[in-house]
Amino acid sequence: MSTAQDQFIALIKASKPVEPAVLNSIFDQLPPIRPDQVLGEWNGGFFDTGHHVGDTLNEIRWVGKSFKSVDDVDPVIIDKDGERTSWGKWGFATLKEMVYRGVVSTTMIYDDRPVFDHFRYVNDKLIAGIMEGKTLGDDFFFYLER
């Protein structure tokens, strides 16, 4: 029987549309992650669930996130002429441990937007994420890789 981690990795590798219910089920089985475990530079990807945030991220050439410290996070790093740079239009963020779906794990809180990114541990080089907020509609599912 495959673990939630194995299932999450398989969905990334499949690179095809995924139902949010499937991603929710897997996410809820993943273990928590501490803020100190996410510090550093991460490359990003997301699942094709038809969510409008995916179109925006493709348009701006999103490549990941930069966690300089728990109080200094650049949530939207883009590819500008082959270089990783801050997009800046969604502001900055901080990391806190918060309860999400009954689990205390790391959450990234945007400074200037009513948006939260909740993280769970997949392995030392892969994190699962759900972006949620009042203005987003449905949850947006993504992942970060070192």
UniProtKB/TrEMBL annotation:
<feature type="domain" description="GXWXG">
    <location>
        <begin position="26"/>
        <end position="80"/>
    </location>
</feature>
<dbReference type="InterPro" id="IPR025568">
    <property type="entry name" value="DUF4334"/>
</dbReference>
<dbReference type="Pfam" id="PF14231">
    <property type="entry name" value="GXWXG"/>
</dbReference>
<protein>
    <recommendedName>
        <fullName>GXWXG protein-domain-containing protein</fullName>
    </recommendedName>
</protein>
<dbReference type="Pfam" id="PF14232">
    <property type="entry name" value="DUF4334"/>
</dbReference>
<feature type="domain" description="DUF4334">
    <location>
        <begin position="93"/>
        <end position="146"/>
    </location>
</feature>
<dbReference type="InterPro" id="IPR025951">
    <property type="entry name" value="GXWXG_dom"/>
</dbReference>
